[in-house]
Specification:
The chain is of the alpha/beta class. The chain has a single domain, classed as P-loop containing nucleotide triphosphate hydrolases (Rossmann fold, 3-Layer(aba) Sandwich). It is about 50% helix and about 10% strand. Helix 8 runs antiparallel to helix 9. The radius of gyration is 16 Å and the shape is globular.
């Protein structure tokens, strides 16, 4: 069993990419839905207080952990693609610079969380002109979303098999999605991190 975390800031296209992966590789992948959307869409009382943010991020973390365990157990021979990874919660923590506080709150360590995923793909938040405000659960302004994007990128910076797909690859989401699908295709083909990097360098 292999597990891939799809991370990035708000309006990066993570959920859309998950849908594309399922459509293209229906019998080869299993997708873990975004826990935050389930929590907030289910009526969790969103708070801006420090305690409120701590509680909601812990709820998201533990729901995500159980979703990943369930879907991984049910799909032992598939690539498990997670719509967000567990360390994304660090970017939303009241003091994102204090990773130890977040890790103590979830009774874990940085190495434990990094090792939960064999691969990581980070999609940058869309440029301001393409920032999507149509999602009713998304409350961040573009500037807030970009700040979250950078904190998420920092949270995953030490993962040994992480691909960062920036907006420099093209102005439209389809350009980022194409590169991400190449990564997923080659992961399923058993290619190494270095081999996939070399392939991406040739992708137009």
């Amino acid at each position: 069993m292999r597990k891939l975390a799809l991370t990035g800031g708000p309006s990066a296209g993570k959920t859309t990419l998950c849908q594309a992966v399922l459509k293209q590789y229906a019998t080869q992948v299993a997708v873990v839905p975004e826990a935050a959307s389930i929590v907030f869409g289910g009526g969790w009382p969103r708070r801006k207080t420090i305690d409120g943010i701590r509680h909601q991020q812990k709820a998201i973390y533990f729901l995500q952990r159980e979703l990943e365990a369930l879907i991984s157990h049910e799909s032992p021979n598939r690539l498990v693609v997670c719509d967000r990874g567990s360390l994304d919660g660090l970017a939303y923590w009241p003091n994102a610079a204090d990773s130890d506080e977040f890790l103590r709150a979830i009774n874990s360590s940085l190495n434990q969380e990094l090792s939960r995923y064999d691969w990581v793909i980070h999609l940058d938040t869309a440029p301001e002109s393409y920032y999507d405000v149509s999602n009713p659960l998304r409350r961040e302004t573009f500037d807030e979303a970009w700040a979250l994007n950078e904190r998420i990128k920092t949270a995953w910076s030490t993962h040994p098999q992480r691909f960062v797909i920036t907006n420099s690859v093209g102005p439209h989401f389809i350009d980022k999605m194409h590169r991400a699908l190449v990564v997923i295709r080659e992961v399923m083909a058993g290619k190494s991190f270095a081999e996939i990097q070399a392939i991406l360098a040739q992708v137009k």
